[in-house]
Amino acid sequence: MDRKTGLYIHFPFCVKKCNYCAFLSFNADESVRRDYANALMHEIELAGRRFSGQISTVYFGGGTPSIMDVSLMSLIMKAIRRNFDVLPDAEITIEANPGTLGIKDRVVRAKLIAYRSMGINRLSMGVQSMDNVRLHMLGRIHTAENVVRDVNIARELGFDNINLDLIFSVPGESTEDALEDARKIIDLRPEHISCYSLQLEEGTPFYEMAEQGMISEVPDEEDRETYHRIIELLRGSGYEHYEISNFARLEDGSGRSPYRSQHNSLYWSLDNYIGLGLGASGFMDGVRYRNTDDMEEYFRNLAEDQLPVMEEKINSAFDNISEAVFTGLRRREGITYEEAKAAYLLASEQGSTASGVIAGAEDMSADELFWKVFAESREETEEYAAQGLLVIDEEGLRLTEKGVDISNGIMSLFV
Ligand code: SF4
Question: Where does ligand 1 bind, in terms of residues with CB under 6 Å?
């Protein structure tokens, strides 16, 4: 089966840690960042030797990739093109946090010009809020004014695919506050908006503060109310709600936005992605792997000409179909029986010893196979459908807007 492949490159550096962040990121000086770029380029070379297909998306994520010196980013991009066959129309995204593009306008301009000349055609900015007090509380290093300035400069330079991230349900924030943030973000007319509800993750300063009673989590009911009001606002402003947390701007008269994130869509469609860099994970033809998150080990492995893979797992047929349903249900279109069948048969396609494919699966109709695999969950799934939380039709399954609120419960039927 023809599968798309994306490339994810992780940059684990940030100016400072945000108060809610549990991602793999830390502060490091310029010499560490340079050493990292060199090791990464070697990893790109080693990984490129093992892959002969084409790359349809490249995603520089983090951490904060925009913290890297542009000359290093340019060398990394060249290494990618030298070692991988990147399609001419590939979506190439960089997470470019406001506050790291530069203090002065001319510095921001120079950095963005350099990104464009490298072929980067999509910017993803971690805006999170347009209220300076809330930004400060979140531990962000930028202001709302920085966001407006950076987006305007990017527009002047021709960037026509920009994502802005928004966080809601920040402790102390009301639904109205969150909607005001969303309105200010919409005013900038980004092509894509990602909206996440703030989670208090263990090990973060916010988690500690909540433990000590200094802040309290927004109650579930209020969080859901805010989420649905944001959906309503974004839909009314011309955005397509195409995935639980993601919205893409519609062009006049079309029902499907051309600005859906192609890279993230690979994750939700069980396509392939190669993950490179510290702590990055990848999925290739039914095999999941994860790189070490220990920087010294990362450097050591690459110095010994070895890929820094820490864990590798061959998915069984059930793992594949389960992951396809779990991620597919995040999309507005949900999961089709045909996609689920293709995922199930992926294990046998790879000749995996861990496949455990039901005999005759290939000859079964896609819906028959689906309900054979998930026979034990069928009754409960149909109950959800009867309650209007899920739609089951001849194509497959999808969540309703009401169903999204209990998506974890519904998805857990398929794991
Ligand atoms: S910028 Fe992003 S990755 Fe870095 S600390 Fe903040 S939330 Fe985490």
Answer: 14, 17-18, 21, 23, 25, 62-64, 97, 126
Q: Which atom of ligand 1 is nearest to the CA of 140?
A: 6
Residues 216 and 93 placed together within one structural domain of the fold: yes
Give the residues across from 287 on adjacent strands. 284, 314
Whether residues 238 and 347 fall in one domain: no
Residue 287 lies in a domain: no
Residue 144, domain CATH? 3.20.20.70
The pLDDT tens digits of the residues spanning 323-368 come to 999 999 999 999 999 999 999 998 777 665 555 688 889 999 999 9
Domain of residue 371: give its range: 316-415
Of 84, 102, 229, 93, the closest CA to residue 164 belongs to 93
Residue 356's CATH number = 1.10.10.920
What one-character DSSP code corresponds to residue 363?
A: G
Phi/psi region, residue 307 (left: phi>0; alpha: psi -120 to 50; beta: rest), is beta
Task: Count CB atoms within 10 A of the CB of residue 149.
Answer: 17
Where is the domain boundary, 225, 245, 266? 266
CB < 8 Å & 24+ apart, contacts of 387-394: 391/334, 394/367
Please check whether residue 67 is in contact with residue 100, taking contact to mean a CB–CB distance below 8 angstroms.
yes
Tokens standing for residue 24? 């793999």
CA dihedral sign, ordered 259, 263, 265, 271: positive
Query: Which mutation among 18, 66, 129 tests ligand 1's pocket best, with the greatest number of atoms within 8 A of CB?
Result: 18
Once rounded to an integer, what is the mean pLDDT over residues 299-313?
97
Residue 164 lies in a domain: yes
What distance in Å separates the CA atoms of residue 236 and residue 92, rounded to the nearest whole number?
Answer: 29
54 and 166 share a domain? Answer: yes
- Rounded to whole angstroms, the Cα distance separating 412 from 415 reads 5
